[in-house]
């Protein structure tokens, strides 16, 4: 992601935004000590937090630059072992500018129990019914990364059985908002299941929501909300 103007305000550099996104995700309990995020720099290179970094206390110094084969371009700390998630999505999807691999509680509980995620609230329709990579194993090889990218397809989200979720967005703000929406949908679905049968949005309801809610301004609203919690 390059510096760009949005709403009259100049965005911080990509590394700084990535630091914010990961710290925000950690504060929201979307990731733990081993989640990671990335931003595409160009066709062959991307920024990602180092594997050993403390996510909640991340700084720009913890962001390294790697190529699609995981070789360091800038920085000295190794990337996460699952950098293949990011590399293979970037190989397969030229439209994707940012990727987050989260370890969220509620969507992971659904996959552990074998329950498919369904769109049960308005923003949840933007991730719909995410496909499932039916393996709990780490995505620590190019082959596994390719499997994940193929499972994601042209979508915005993929769930990893008993493991977590991966979100892909055109930019980091969109990607982060989708991660929030995905986990909130899983939470509402799980909680509704404790007292009854959740209402699943109809095809028509989903289409209406997607037309009105897939919006850079609304993605930014979610970003600003979570960013304010870091201050």
CATH homologous superfamily (4th level) name: Class II aldolase/adducin N-terminal domain
Largest sheet: 8 strands, mixed
Please count the beta strands (DSSP E, at least 2 residues each): 10
Order of helices and strands: EEHEEEEHEHEHEEHHH
Placed side by side, the strands forming the largest sheet appear as 6-5-4-3-7-10-9-8
Unreliable residue stretches = 1-8
Kindly report the average pLDDT value.
95
Distance N terminus to C terminus?
23 Å
Q: Determine the fraction of residues in helical runs and give it as a percent range.
A: 25-40%
Proportion of residues in extended strands: 15-25%
Rg of Cα set: 17 Å
Provide the CATH architecture: 3-Layer(aba) Sandwich
Within the CATH hierarchy, at the fold level, what is the topology? L-fuculose-1-phosphate Aldolase
What is the 3D form? globular
Number of domains: 1
Count of separate DSSP helical elements: 7
User: What class would the helix/strand composition place it in?
Assistant: alpha+beta
Can you identify the CATH class? Alpha Beta
């Amino acid at each position: 992601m390059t510096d760009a103007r949005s709403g009259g305000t100049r965005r911080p550099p990509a590394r700084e935004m990535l630091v914010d996104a990961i710290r925000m995700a950690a504060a929201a309990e979307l990731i733990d000590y081993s989640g990671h995020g990335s931003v595409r720099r160009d066709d062959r290179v991307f920024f990602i937090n180092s594997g050993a970094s403390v996510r909640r206390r991340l700084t720009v110094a913890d962001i390294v630059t790697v190529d699609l084969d995981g070789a360091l371009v800038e920085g000295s700390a190794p990337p996460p072992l699952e950098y293949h998630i990011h590399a293979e999505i970037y190989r397969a999807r030229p439209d994707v500018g940012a990727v987050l691999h989260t370890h969220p509680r509620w969507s992971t509980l659904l996959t552990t129990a074998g329950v498919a995620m369904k769109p049960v609230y308005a923003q949840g329709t933007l991730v719909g019914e995410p496909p499932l990579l039916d393996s709990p194993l780490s995505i620590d090889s190019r082959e596994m990364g390719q499997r994940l990218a193929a499972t994601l397809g042209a979508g915005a989200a993929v769930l990893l059985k008993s493991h977590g979720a991966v979100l892909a967005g055109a930019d980091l703000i969109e990607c982060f908002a989708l991660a929030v929406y995905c986990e909130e949908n899983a939470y509402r679905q799980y909680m509704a299941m404790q007292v009854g049968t959740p209402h699943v949005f109809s095809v028509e309801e989903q289409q209406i929501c997607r037309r009105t809610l897939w919006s850079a301004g609304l993605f930014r609203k979610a970003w600003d909300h979570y960013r304010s919690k870091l201050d």
